[in-house]
UniProtKB/TrEMBL annotation:
Pfam name, any one: Glyco_hydro_64
InterPro entries attached to this UniProt entry: Glyco_hydro_64, Glyco_hydro_64_fam, Glyco_hydro_64_N_2, Osmotin/thaumatin-like_sf
Segments forming domain GH64: 1-382
Lineage start: Eukaryota, Fungi, Dikarya, Ascomycota, Pezizomycotina
Protein name listed in UniProt: GH64 domain-containing protein
Region (Disordered) residue spans: 379-409
């Protein structure tokens, strides 16, 4: 059982003295009400329900991160659905709707007061069992690189390195290059700020919020080939849960798993979201089992491996991800390309944590977790080894001379074993 609170250290490596953190989530020990951590980094603020929508908070929840190179101490209680938000250049605006319900910053609403601010977040849950943290590119790649290091009470360390400084510019360039190659619309995912610099790169799912026609029909030919193959070949999916292996075939126009349910052909939007069309509204009687099947089908479609591998996900090999066109090139670029993401890890679509059973390799999702956490260190702006602090979106260039040592080999092996255990137990 974890402690009632845990410690977080936030290191400002952005090169900006105008850097801020915000912590939001649901209070696990107080009926899951929304909470913030106030500016002192330790006092909990539980907002009351306002009388009108879009109401201002009644507490200062901007945690100043100090000068470049400074480290700020934060203490959090047990929180579900937590996020640690970061901004540079300007503070973020959080609002309240009746409930209360928190109105969070948006990358898809151009009228949002935070739209042109440089910001990002990592995600966490801290409950009685463990602290679980991940970096995320599911919605967008932002201009503030985020790295994680979790040390437990025995001194063992896990880490996720994240993007290098300026990584969003490389991601944007690669999306533009991909669009030049296939004309699918990847360039429309690149968002520029008022200064003309790259502000963020949206995921295809986020990009389709602004333009529902984006990527329309993109996966159709591939899905048709998949459906044609599995009309005469068994598709076996390891649910990695109590249902074990489940086998199905296409019958008529439906991918059918007897006594469980069926999947219609998904559109590109369904594949990118992993939660619409055939990947949503599962029958109540088999909802959880269908969810396990759907997660693994959606993952293999994003990675374009379903046509070649009839045993999902246990026949998967990471080097084969994203090799067949069409594929989710946005997911390929940030986490999978070593010249962009420093260790090739980070959620790029909702089921990016689907992996073969027993896989001891580094996870693709960019997670750290431990049942006995002592200190979570979150570094924003990129490590010193990535050629300086992040630039753009309000940050100023200023060299950070901090030295960060790499984890020794035995720690890497330990992280891999822990990741494999998590993957074997975790079901979306």
């Amino acid at each position: 059982m974890t402690n009632p609170t845990t410690a977080i250290a936030i290191k400002n490596n952005t090169g900006s003295s105008q850097a801020y953190a915000y912590i939001t989530g649901l209070d696990l020990n107080n009926n899951n009400v929304p909470l913030f951590i106030q500016a002192d980094g330790k006092t909990v603020y539980r907002p009351s329900s306002p009388s009108a929508p879009q109401s201002a908070l009644e507490a200062d929840v901007s945690i100043p991160l100090g000068a470049p190179g400074a480290t700020t101490a934060v203490t959090i209680p047990q929180i579900a659905g937590g996020r640690i938000w970061f901004s540079t250049g300007s503070k973020l605006t959080f609002l309240l709707n009746p409930g209360p319900a928190v109105v969070e910053p948006s990358v898809t609403n151009t009228a949002d007061p935070n739209y042109n601010i440089s910001w990002g977040f990592c995600e966490f849950t801290y409950n009685k069992e463990q602290l679980f943290v991940n970096i995320s590119y599911v919605d967008f790649v932002g201009p503030i690189p985020i790295a994680l290091e979790l040390r437990n009470t025995a001194g063992k360390v896990q880490s996720v390195q994240g993007l290098p400084a300026g990584g969003v510019n490389t991601v944007a360039d690669k999306l533009i290059q991909q669009n030049a190659a296939d004309g699918a619309g990847w360039d429309k995912l690149v968002i520029k700020g008022p200064d003309g610099k790259t502000l963020r790169a949206l995921s295809p799912n986020s990009g389709r919020v602004a333009d529902a026609n984006l990527f329309q029909g993109y996966f159709d030919d591939y899905v048709n080939k998949v459906w044609s193959k599995y009309a005469s070949t068994d598709l076996t999916i390891n649910t990695q849960a109590s249902w074990g292996d489940v086998t199905g075939r296409v019958q008529g126009d439906l991918l059918t798993f007897p006594n469980v349910g069926t999947f219609a052909k998904p559109s590109a939007g369904d594949i990118f979201s992993c939660s619409t069309g055939p990947f949503g509204s599962y029958p109540e009687a088999t909802r959880d089992e269908m969810g396990a099947l759907g997660a693994r089908i959606a993952a293999s479609l994003n990675r374009s491996t379903l046509l070649d591998n009839a045993k999902q996900p246990d026949g998967e090999k990471i080097p084969n991800y994203y090799k067949t066109n069409p594929t989710n090139h946005y997911a390929r670029i940030p986490p999978q390309t070593h010249e962009v993401n420093l260790d090739g890890r980070g959620y790029a679509f909702p089921y990016d944590d689907v992996v073969p059973s027993g896989d001891a390799g580094p996870d693709q999702a960019g997670t750290v977790f431990d049942s006995n956490p002592e200190l979570l260190t979150v570094t924003i702006g990129g490590p010193a080894s990535s050629n300086g602090p992040a630039t753009g979106g309000g940050s100023k260039k200023e060299k950070d001379d901090d030295n960060k040592t790499a984890a020794p080999g035995w720690l890497s092996k330990l992280k891999s074993l822990l990741s494999a255990l998590k993957k074997a137990l975790h079901i979306k």
